[in-house]
Amino acid sequence: MAGHAAGFPGEAAPEHDDRIGPYRLLHVLGTGGMGRVHLARSEGGRTVAVKLIKPELAAEPEFRERFRLEVEAARRVGDRWTAPVLDADTEADTPWVATGYIAGPSLEHVVSPRGHGPLPELSVRTLAYGLSSALLDIHGAGLVHRDLKPSNVLVTIDGPRVIDFGIARALDSLPESTLTSAGMVVGSPSFMSPEQIRGEQLTPASDVFCMGALLAYAATGRAPFGGGGSGGVHAVMFKIAEEAPDLAGIEEPLRSLIEGCLVKDPTARARPEDVIGQVQPVATGTSTPPWLPAQLIAELGRRAVQLLDTDTPPRATAMASPARTHAPTQATPTPPHTPAPAPAPVEAGTLKLPQPTVARPPEPGPEQESESESVPKPELEGTGRPAPERPKKRAARKLVLAVAGVAVVAGAVFAASAAGWPPLGGGKPSGGPAGGGTASDVPRGFVGTWAGEVLRDGQPSGQFRRFEISEGQYGEVVANSISLGRNYECKSDGKLAGRASGGSSLRLDTKVVGSVPEGSCSALGSHTLIAESKDALRWEAAGRSAVLHRITGPERLPQALLGTWQRQLANGGTQRMTVTQEAVGSPAARMISEGGGEHCEAGMDLVSAGGRDATVRLAPPAVDRAASSGACVTGASSQLRAENGQLIREFTDGSTLTYTRV
C-alpha cells in the first residue's frame, strides 16, 4: 500500500494505492495510537470506515492475537444498536478492519453548549433503551465495552449507536495482565465505574454504571461526578468511588432509573434488561413519534444529505494528495514554530472539507520562576493576612487513559462530524481516532499522576512536585501541577509546547492558577519531562530537578488520621483540626483556633496521600478571612501521621505538633 493510503511512509501497497481490500479510500478521518482511519466506499457503493493498524503493532504477536480475538468477538455483536464489522484481514502485513459508517454526531456534541444542550425526558428514555439493548448485544458476544462515554455514542434519527470497542475486553480471551501496563487505568475518568478505579476485575455491570453516568449527562449536560476541573482527575475518581452522584434537575421516574445504574456495588446494580423493562415502549421507528427534538432531526437530515456529496476520487490521484481534495478532520500537529496552514473556503452545498487550522505551540512566555522562600510564621495564632483567592476552576478536560496492547476493532466508526461536519450549532470540526477525539500529542507513557522530591542544583530542597498529565494537543493544557515548599503551595497549568521526535520527552509552558499564601508564586516557565522508565519521569526546570514516580489508584488518607483532633495554644486557647477524606488538591484538614479574643479558621489542601512512601502531605493553611477575626498567623506545610493514638504533624525543620482525639 502506498504510504498515503495507510499513513505509514514506505509501506508496500496491498493492491492499489487508493484501495485496501475491496474498499476505495476517500480521505483520512483521523489518526490514533493504533493506526489511521479512512472514510471509504465498497465496490457496491456503501460508505464504510476502514482502520489500518500500525506496522509496529502488527509485528507484535500478542497484539495480533488480541486483534484476531476481538474481531471475532465483534462480529458476533448485532448491528441494530452498534456499528457492524463488515470485513477484516487480521493476517495481512497491515491488518485492517472495515465497519459500518454511521452518519450522526456524537452525544457529546449534541449535548454540549455548542449543540442542542440537555435532552428532554423522552429522548433520555429512548437513549436508555438503545444503550441497554446495545449492552445486551455486546455482553452477549462475550465483550465488556469498558469505555462507554458520550463521544462513543452516536445519535441517529432512528436511535443511538454505540461505537469504539478499542479497549473492549473479550471475556474469554487473554488474561487481564496482558492488557494493561502497570499503573494504567482503562477508561475515561468522568464515565468510569468504581471497580475500574480500584483496578478490580471488570464484569458487564461496569458498563451499566458507565451507562448511568452517560444518561445523567444527557439529561443535565454535566457529568454526575464532575469533569476534572480544579480538583483534577483524582477528585473525579474519588467522587465515583465514595460519593453520591449529582442528579439535581432529573425528575422521577428517570432519576430512580439512573440511580439504579449508579449503585457502587456491582452485584446490586441494575441490569440492562431491568432498564429496558422500565423504559418500554420506546419511540425509535419511523411509525412512532420522533425520539429527538425537531430542530435536531432537521440538522441530522441536512447533514446526511451533505454526506452523499462526498465524491469517490479518481484512481490516479485518489490518495496522492488527500489534503487537496478532502482534508483530514485533524491534521498532524504542526511542529513547533511552523506556521499553521490557512483554512480553505467551503463551497455551499458540498462537503469539501476545510483545511483545519492546527494549534501552533505558543512561544515561551515572559514568566520566570519565582517561588517563595520566606521564613514561616508561627502556627495559626493570628495573621491579619487576607484570605487567598480560590483559583478559578479550570476547564474540564477529557482524559482518555489509554490501554497498552489492545486492538481497535469497532472503534473504526466515527460520527459524521469526523468527516468534516461542524458540531451542532457551529464551532470547529471535530472527531478523530477511535474514542471520539483527535490523536493526542502526549505519548501514552506520560499520561498519569507523578510525584517526587525536588532537588535544587543537585541538593535536597525540601520541596515536593506533583504532576497530573493527560492527553491533548500542542498548545492545550495537558498537565496540572502542585509545587509544595516549606511555606507555600503553588498550583499551575501546563500547556504542551514541544516534544522529542521519538516521544521520549515533553516540554511544558506553565501558568500559576493558585497560590498559598496569596501572591507567593509565579510560573517557572519551561518545564521538561523525560521518560526514564514506564514508572519514572525526570523533571527539570530552572535549576530544579526531580525523579517523579508514577502514583496508581485513588489516594486515600489512612483511617487512623480521620476525625477531629485538638491541641493547646501558647495563648491558652485551643486549636481543633478536623481531617476528612478528600481528593488531592482539596482541603482535607480544617483548623479552628480560638483564644485571646481571636477566632481563626483555615483549610489545608491535601497534596499527596500515596506513592512510594505513602506520606500524607498538607499545604500551608489558607485562612478563611470571612470566618476569622483577629491577627491570624499561618504556619508551614506539614506531614501527618498517627502514632500511639495521637495525631502528629511534622514540619520540614523536624519540629512537630501533637494532637489528641476529641
TrEMBL record:
Residues 423-438 have a biased composition (Gly residues). Its EC number is 2.7.11.1. It holds the Pfam family Pkinase. GO terms for molecular function: protein serine/threonine kinase activity. It is an enzyme of class 2 (transferase). The chain crosses the membrane at residues 399-421. This is Serine/threonine-protein kinase. It comes from Streptomyces cavernicola.
